[in-house]
Amino acid sequence: MRQKRTTNRTTEARSKIMRAVKSQSTSPEVAVRDQLRPFGLRVRFNAPYLPGKPDIAIHSIMLAIFVNGCFWHGHGCKRGSRSPKTNAEYWTAKIARNRARDRQNTALLRRKGWKVLTIWECDSVPSRARKLKRALAVRRSA
Ligand SMILES: [Zn+2]
Q1: Is 48 helix (H, G, I), strand (E, B) or coil?
Q2: Residue 26 to residues 8, 19, 29, 75, 139: CA-CA distances in angstroms?
Q3: pLDDT tens-digit profile of 63-110?
């Protein structure tokens, strides 16, 4: 028997957001994997030997892909610019450190000849597809 949900929506939405933040957006990562499949490239997931440990690395075309959570990486979108009410200073500093590290890792990867693509948690499926397509096209023709 399915119970109809009439509980407080705000609480529900909030806990949903918290779950998403905690899991560091596993679902967009899975979506990106699926979107890469038709390209028939050998794709490696989690590349701990590369700066910043990209979520996805495609060695044949030297493309490193990060799937970033908007909150943790301080994206300029609505979710990314949300500031927590408690420990705001702590979080602001932490996110600033994350961003600095992201920039540094991107620079290191580029120096090694890698192209870096960042997919955001908030990117829509078509927008992700466009980004991937563009990155793959650029890399293949180069
Ligand atoms: Zn975002």
Answers
A1: coil
A2: 26, 11, 5, 17, 26
A3: 999 999 999 999 999 988 887 888 889 999 999 999 999 999 999 999
pTM: 0.75
pLDDT at 135: 92
Q: What are the helix (H) ranges across 23-87?
A: 26-36
Among 101, 122, 141, 117, residue whose Cα is nearest residue 36: 117
Q: What's the rounded Cα separation, in Å, for the pair 1 and 40?
A: 44
> What confidence tens digit (pLDDT) does each residue in 121-132 have?
999 888 998 999
Strands (E), the chain: 44-45, 56-58, 63-68, 115-120
Question: Within 10 Å of residue 53's Cβ, how many Cβ atoms?
Answer: 13
| CA of 68 relative to ligand 1 center, distance in Å | 8
Kindly calculate the radius of gyration of the chain based on its CA atoms and give it in whole angstroms: 17
pLDDT of 97 reads: 97
> How far, in Å, is the centroid of ligand 1 from the Cα of 73?
9
- How many CA atoms lie less than 13 Å away from 30 in the CB half-sphere? 5
For residue 138, the CA-to-ligand 1 centroid distance in Å is 24
